[in-house]
């Protein structure tokens, strides 16, 4: 055991909602961390965090931070990744980037290991971790697509506030208290920090996640659409998305409508495919009111699927409900899984 090779790991954005989960996941997985560097903005530099019982001091992330680093996990926002990921690569690190900065870039694998693990080996230094809502959907749909073919996907999401960071979660907490105390709600962060207008999230539902694009879709919706096609290597798949923020803290839920190509598929066949799918747990039994919820999925690495039904009009149409912890499989766990794959396959 003592001969296990250990790796010099850097976590960029360690204090963030995802960064914290990255550290927890590296611990939980007993990841072979040798040296560990916790990097942050200058604002958080100097503060302390613990990993495996040892205290670490946060350092400001600079190009020089990546000297001798083997694996750099980035989750500090797109602009930090754009600036520093190429620097980390120059210093010889392999970057696993959790932002949208490089996801659609040519030469950057966009990976959900259950779907397209072998894309990792094409990397040129940067591997992108997909958007949280995309990850759980493609992992649930790929086994269906492989077995039955797939022509169309229409998804509506029910997304937790933690996706927008710790500050957004705090805003929900404060607004909820204000609301219950009969006070007026003040919104500063959601739907999008820095955007022109803000709406209360407490006891509300916001049909905007990330900024609007010229076509009337939000960037979150377009990420789901474009990333799904890239990960599945399916440029011709029809995908439409509506992304909605709801007032709960953890896990994204999705109502997914799919049209398969094969005729005569039954709900039982669909259930069996998902039962056997890697990373997926089927929780589906109307007789016992069994289905996943954001609370039941929180703190778990799996993706949970339930409510599988056949469309009542289109014989090739199916509806399903997909739930997963947005900070784990949607972010930290998928990133660590990519790192584990890099090591196991010697693709580093
Ligand atoms: O694209 O606000 O990785 O919930 C994922 C979380 C974008 C924002 C991404 C949110 C982010 C999203």
TrEMBL record:
Keywords: Amino-acid biosynthesis, Diaminopimelate biosynthesis, Lysine biosynthesis, Methionine biosynthesis, NADP, Oxidoreductase, Threonine biosynthesis. NADP(+) binds at residues 15-18, 43-44, 162-163, 326. Substrate binds at residues 159, 245. CDD domains: ASADH_C_bac_euk_like (cd18131), VcASADH2_like_N (cd02316). Pathway: Amino-acid biosynthesis; L-lysine biosynthesis via DAP pathway; (S)-tetrahydrodipicolinate from L-aspartate: step 2/4; Amino-acid biosynthesis; L-methionine biosynthesis via de novo pathway; L-homoserine from L-aspartate: step 2/3; Amino-acid biosynthesis; L-threonine biosynthesis; L-threonine from L-aspartate: step 2/5. The active site is at residues 132, 252. Residues 8-123 form the Semialdehyde dehydrogenase NAD-binding domain. It comes from the Bacteria. Phosphate binds at residue 103. Homodimer. Catalyzes the NADPH-dependent formation of L-aspartate-semialdehyde (L-ASA) by the reductive dephosphorylation of L-aspartyl-4-phosphate. This is Aspartate-semialdehyde dehydrogenase. The gene is asd.
